[in-house]
Amino acid sequence: MNYQRIYEYRFAGVDQCAREAVWSVIAKYIKKLMGNPEIILDPAGGRGEFLRSLPEVNERWMVDAVKAIDDSSLKGIHFIEHDIRSLELPASYFNGIFVSNFFEHLDNQADIYDLLAKFKDSLKPGGVISVMGPNFKYCAHNYFDCADHRTPLTHISMEELLYSAGYNIERCIPRFLPFSFRGVLPANKFFTRLYLALPWLHIEAMPQGRNAQGLSFDDIIARIVPDTDILAVSIMFSQEWPLIRSLINRIRETYPYLTIIAGGEHITALAEFSLRDCAALDFCGRGEGENLLLEFISAKRSGKDVRKITGLCYRDKDDIIINPQRMPLGGVHINVVFVLINQCGDKNM
Ligand code: B12
Predict the structure, then answer these.
(1) Which end of the chain has fewer surrounding CB within 10 Å, N or C?
(2) Is any ligand 1 atom within 6 A of the Cβ of residue 293?
(3) Do the Cβ atoms of 187 and 207 come closer than 8 Å?
(4) Alpha carbons 22 and 3: distance in angstroms, whole number
(5) Which atom of ligand 1 is nearest to the CA of 261?
(6) CATH class of domain segment(s) 210-322
């Protein structure tokens, strides 16, 4: 297949300057999502729009079977003209790999899996892969309008492939951008920035096809006052645990020294499991939290030992210690309900 002529035909009406302007916004957004990696590989770089938008990155590696741009545009980028599938990559080397619009071109899922496993070996421990591409779930009617698209992929099948190749899924955005460069909407830097800045347009997707609407993780984290020392998380329903676990992990990355304590019905039922399942979680509080949390905060703030607090669960090396549960508070619940009703009444009047 003559890819050169395919792309010439496909992008005939697309202004390359507008394309690059849009990429400059997307690239910075993605780099931040990936945790600002220092050494990045783009294994199917095309015209290099992603890496060329990130001159501040220490080391930029780009691979492509066809060299589509001249040497002067590739300044500062380590370019290798090769089919990525047969190229030997350095082991444990990259902090980040960004794969854009590539996997759908491979023959089948097995080939994608092999490549993902190969990328995993070339990532440093803690490295991040970010995969972007057309989502068959949302553009099935024109997915195969591209003559070089072979394998249908959705955000869910991509998650399965990534997970089976040994990655943990931190974040999935099923509709990252609403348009393609030859779609009906204009490829415009201003619209792209606006879209990415409006979190309520995004849907946070979780493993196994679950979606979570509302504030994105970034926006929740941005609302944490930077000098916070204790963060209390409430988890009522167990089906929310995978989402909240990812959020707690993300909060921990941003605030490594924050004390994180969780409570609620899920935690009361599964405190040990939750502590084992989420290394970023420091403490769990079982049962009613009113007095437990007060005792916990005052002990922490006055430098006292929190381990004796009734209802608290914590790690002790490899063990999880579950303190006895607290007695219920009794009448307080009635008062709480009464106050809530009053507040609702005031609001509605
Ligand atoms: C009201 C309620 C609902 C309402 C929720 C309305 C809302 N959004 O607030 C509705 C009807 C929508 C609902 C639906 C469901 N519910 Co319901 N629901 C309840 C119920 C009866 C009361 C929850 C409540 O508000 N309690 C009052 C508050 C103040 O208590 P609390 O949240 O537990 O918090 C206290 C402690 O847990 C602790 N605490 C809380 N957070 C924190 C944080 C920290 C750091 C600490 C230290 C302590 C702490 O202190 C608080 C004060 O004492 C509970 C049963 C119960 N008795 O608790 C079930 C319960 C929460 N529901 C349950 C279930 C299963 C469901 C459904 C899945 C049912 C279904 N099959 O559809 C759905 C799920 C809905 C969803 N969004 O996903 C289960 C959850 C079990 C689990 N492990 O997941 C419960 C526990 C009932 C049960 N025993 O089966 N539910």
Answers:
(1) C
(2) yes
(3) no
(4) 23
(5) 45
(6) alpha beta
Q: Which of 239, 265, 341 to mutate to test the pocket of ligand 1 (most atoms within 8 A of CB)?
A: 265
Please identify which residue in the block is written with the tokens 């007060």. 294
CATH 3.40.1160.10 applies to domain 3-197: no
The lowest-confidence range among 24-38, 66-80, 173-187, 210-224 is: 173-187
DSSP bridge partners of 62: 42, 79
pLDDT in tens, 85-112: 999 999 999 999 999 999 999 999 999 9
- Any atom of ligand 1 within 6 Å of the Cβ of 292: yes
φ/ψ (deg, to 5) at 165: -85, 5
Looking at the whole model, is its pTM more than 0.85?
A: no
* SS3 assignment for the chain: CCHHHHHHHHCCCCCHHHHHHHHHHHHHHHHHHCCCCCEEEECCCCCCHHHHCCCCCCEEEEEECCCCCCHHHHCCEEEEECCHHHCCCCCCCEEEEEEECCHHHCCCHHHHHHHHHHHHHHEEEEEEEEEECCCHHHHHHHHCCCCCCCCCCCHHHHHHHHHHCCCCCCCECCCCCCCCCCCCCCCCHHHHHHHHHCHHHCCEEEHHHEEECCCCHHHHHHCCCCCCCEEEEECCCHHHHHHHHHHHHHHHHHCCCCEEEEECHHHHHCHHHHHHHCCCCCEEECCCCHHHHHHHHHHHHCCCCCCCCCCEEEEECCEEEECCCCCCCCCHHHHHHHHHHHHHHHHHC
CATH 3.40.50.150 domain locations along the chain = 3-197
Which residue in this structure is represented by tokens 């963060």? Answer: 231
pLDDT at residue 349, rounded to an integer: 33
